[in-house]
Amino acid sequence: MSDAIAVLNAGSSSLKFSLFAGHGDALELTVRGQVEALHTAPRFVAKDRHGKIVGEESWGDGVKLGHDGALDHLVTFLRTGLGEQLLTGVGHRVVHGGLEYSRPVRVDAKVLSALDRYVPLAPLHQPHNLAPIRALLGRAPELPQVACFDTAFHRAQPEVAQAFALPRSITDRGVRRYGFHGLSYEYIAQALPTYDAKAAAGRVVVLHLGNGSSMCAMTNGRSVASSMGFTAVDGLPMGTRCGSLDPGVILYLLDELKMDARGIEKLLYQQSGLLGVSGISSDMRALLESDQPGAKAAIDLYAYRIGRELGSLAAALGGLDAVVFTAGIGENSAALREQVCRNARWLGIELDEAANVAGGPRISTGASGVSVWAIPTNEELMIARHTLAMLDRADVRASG
Ligand code: AMP
Prior knowledge:
Shape: globular
Structural class: alpha/beta
CATH superfamily of the largest domain: ATPase, nucleotide binding domain
Bound molecules: adenosine monophosphate
Largest sheet: 8 strands, mixed
Order of helices and strands: EEEEEHEEHHEHHHHEEEHHHHHEHHHEH
Strand content: 15-25%
CATH topology of the largest domain: Nucleotidyltransferase, domain 5
Radius of gyration: 21 Å
Strand order of the largest sheet: 5-4-3-2-1-6-8-7
Distance between the termini: 24 Å
């Protein structure tokens, strides 16, 4: 019987899962799927690695399944659908590990209550991430669970990169720059040496451009600065999030437009970014296909802000050896990559247009002073690797 690791990524309205088999570098995805629309019209679908549907269920309109119900269904599916595989551990994507967690952690009741303390720092994500951990701890306490954090990769940044220019009393409450998408950046940091060992050991900026977008400056595979700060609404504009904003705008919304905190939250997280600027869609594909002026305005602003951030992160690094595009837009949109690279010629970037259209992986010319890459990210695999490593360490301790 072979071992399997489940990876869970719980959002506000969905529970995504992947199942991995094997060991070390040979970890292989076997099944992935999700329960979505948890509170409106829940649907479950699971597909094997070839895309063949291996599980499907619908609960109908108006049914509220919630995270617990979704987890129940998933556990039953895994019990009956695992075949010859034995579930040895579950890895979870958790958005916030605060100042305390700079690496993944095996979760027990004590750790879970420590992670609960970070709910105020990420109220839109953390409670959903923790819900399946809590439920599984109650149902299967013997099953090892590992929390992997979006913030952890950035914890080693220099102090100056983490600080806001606020009074000490506020900073001491944990109001500082954390950075997110750390599991994606860690995966790229591990993958890049196989593409460009010299650059990977040098100064690299990774552009994680998806529905959520951010950028990370790395030296020798370690994060030294990132575009996201205290929350995942900072930095670049995103599908529906505004990115960096003059704090004076918030005061204006409060004082002049009489908006309250929840209204502002909705505006900044759900109604801004590509959607807000274009007035059309939060989806880059839809904008690239549209001939309406709003679509072009949104894409131009997105590319412009990426360019500004690239200059800023190159300054934090004191130079630039490589740039990596990843996530939905970064991996798939040759047009956006071209626009960004054209604007960044001053940094020594020379795009190989044919290679870019072909999808890379290298999309810069041989003469380019900075090598540029399009590399698919894999946050789930990163979580599976961490979970397996944690289980292996526990094994060593148990037998030592
Ligand atoms: P992610 O959050 O990483 O799944 O990325 C989602 C974003 O990637 C959406 O804005 C999609 O429109 C965008 N995307 C996916 N495929 C493409 C493509 N072929 N061209 C342009 N954008 C794409």
